[in-house]
Structure formats: structure tokens, C-alpha cells
Amino acid sequence: MRRINMTRCDSRRNGSRIIMTKRVVTLAHYYTQPEIQQMADKVGDSLELSLFAREAEADTIVFAGVRFMAETAKILNPAATVILPDAGSTCSLVTQTDIVALKRWRDSHPDHVHVAYINSSAEHKALSDWIVTSRNVDDIIAHLIGEGKKVMFSPDRNMGAYLNYQYGYDMPLWSAVCEVHDKFNEAALNEALNAVPGASHLIAHPESPLPVLKQAEYVGSTSGMLNWVKQYEGNPKDVIFVATEDGILYNMGLARPDLDLRQAPIYAGCQCNSCPYMKMNTVEAVRRAQQGEGLVIDYLSPEAIEAARKPVERMLEFSRRYTL
Ligand code: 13P
Ligand code: SF4
């Protein structure tokens, strides 16, 4: 178990419940605002935060991210009280997925291994065989297909379409999208690329639409893109377009202030692609969560946690053995 910077608090009242928050650990995703990241003990991508939550020796985990992330923390560390600062912090990949329809779809492919992206509810995870994040999805699916398995992929249609295109798979895909990344637009991107007088580059998150991903020099998770920027050795005068949520531009700018980093354009021509759910993590909401207020992830039964934990643990075990 890893010991981390912990804040000692008193017992607090949350509605009718008293919550003991003796040791509070705050986690923040890269898409949260800089001031939230500065309040956190750990900032990272979905995989890093899941691993950290699993190992955290804490009474309370405040998860400045979105609900499926807080649920994953609870699934991996059921003894901890996990609090999401704002109950409205959902994700379109979750809200666009009807669980009854998903189960029908899953049942209609009995000979397939169901791989689900971590951006899914606990119920969704329980209907899958493997969970993946954008960091390990390529490796895990290549591993399964290498073993001769048939794979079906949910819920992100863009990510699945990219994997099918890139590796020549024919995975059946569920059809939900990230409402933020789905707005990146090929025509607007070409216009922006053409308007740059010198050289330019494009890096992208795999939740973006396929025509955009086809043009990217690098496709990967938030931390993958951050590492690409950190290790960039090309001309610092080149423009680097980044097709992902705007929060990560803060981390990229901190790491490489010498580079011309710009958000890739969306169809309306706006340069701001912000996740409304991540941005619900305001300073006040996170402070209140550190005092025990917010959405406490206490609604998952031990059976629901166990059913969702198996495919998540399979991923963590794979990551330990092959990639991390
Ligand atoms: P990462 O797994 O790359 O952190 O992405 C999570 C996410 O929600 C992207 O929109
Ligand atoms: Fe979900 Fe998209 Fe927001 Fe990520 S950026 S949490 S995928 S809505």
C-alpha cells in the first residue's frame, strides 16, 4: 500500500449521514481545470487514477473527474468512501448506453469476447469480459485477437472504428460517442492546417472521429499525448494541433512552454472543446467533497462491485504483465 499526502478532517454531516473523513485523498483527471489539479494528490489519466485509487490507503477518495471514474475507484477500493464532487458529472458514453439494449446486443454475440471501454457504468462493466482504457486498448485487443478470439467493442463507436481501420479488425461496435471529441471536424481541421504557413502536426485522442484520426501522427490516451509533447524533438516553431479536451493543454503548456500548442478546431470553428461534466468540478465543489459532501458512491451492492471488478482487474493484471 502506498502512503500519500493525506488531509486530516473531522467527522462531517452529509444530509442525514455522518461521514468520518479522517484521511482524504483527492484525485483529479487531466481534463479538470488547473486550480482543481493543484488541489489534488494525484493528477492522471483514467488508468493511472484507477491504479492510484486501488492502492490508496485512505478513508475517503474525492474523485475530481466524472462518475464512471468514481465508480471505478469504489469498485477497486470498496472499503474507501468515494465522493464525486458534483452528482451531475456524467459522461455521454454512459448516458447514450441503454443497459437493456446493451445486454441484448451482448447476448446476440455469444461467441464474442466483450471488451468495454472504462467510460462505462458499473452495470455496463459487469456485462463485459475485459475493461480497457485508451492507454491499453490496442494491446489488449491485439492480445485477444492473437489468441484467436472474436471481439466485440463498446461503447465508443469512434474508438472502435479507429481500431477496426488501423488493424483491419471487424469488431461489432456499440454506437455511443463522446460528445466532446465527436465535434472535432475534418474540414475545419484541414482549413486550420492549411492556414499554418510552416509545418504542423496533429495528435489526437481515439474518441475523435475517424477522418480526424486518420490524419493524426499520434493517437493515444491523455497521458500518451502528454508524453508525445514532452518528448517532441522537432522544430519548436511548428504548430502542434491537439484533438482532445482543452484541460490537457494546461499540462502540455507546463511541460513544454516553448511549443506552439493549439487545440484542433471543431465544426463550429470554436477553439474550445470543453467537457461540461469535468468542468463541474469547481473549487467549491471539490472543497465541499473534501469535507464529506457530494455524491457518495454508496449505491453499488457488493455483488454489483464484484461483477464489475472482475473485468477491471483483468485489465490491471494485463497492464502489470505486459505494458506498465
Ligand atoms: P483517458 O483514459 O485518456 O484519461 O481519457 C478519459 C476520457 O474521458 C477521455 O475523454
Ligand atoms: Fe466523457 Fe467525453 Fe467528457 Fe471524457 S470528455 S468524460 S468521454 S464526455
From TrEMBL:
UniProt xrefs under Pfam families: NadA
A Gene Ontology molecular function term of the record: metal ion binding
Known pathway: Cofactor biosynthesis; NAD(+) biosynthesis; quinolinate from iminoaspartate: step 1/1
Keywords of this entry: 4Fe-4S, Iron, Iron-sulfur, Metal-binding, Pyridine nucleotide biosynthesis, Transferase
A GO biological-process term: 'de novo' NAD+ biosynthetic process from L-aspartate
Record EC number: 2.5.1.72
A single cellular component GO annotation: cytosol
Reported cofactor(s): [4Fe-4S] cluster
NCBIfam families reported for this sequence: nadA, PRK09375.1-2
Protein name according to UniProt: Quinolinate synthase
Source lineage: Bacteria, Pseudomonadati, Pseudomonadota, Betaproteobacteria, Neisseriales
Gene name linked to the record: nadA
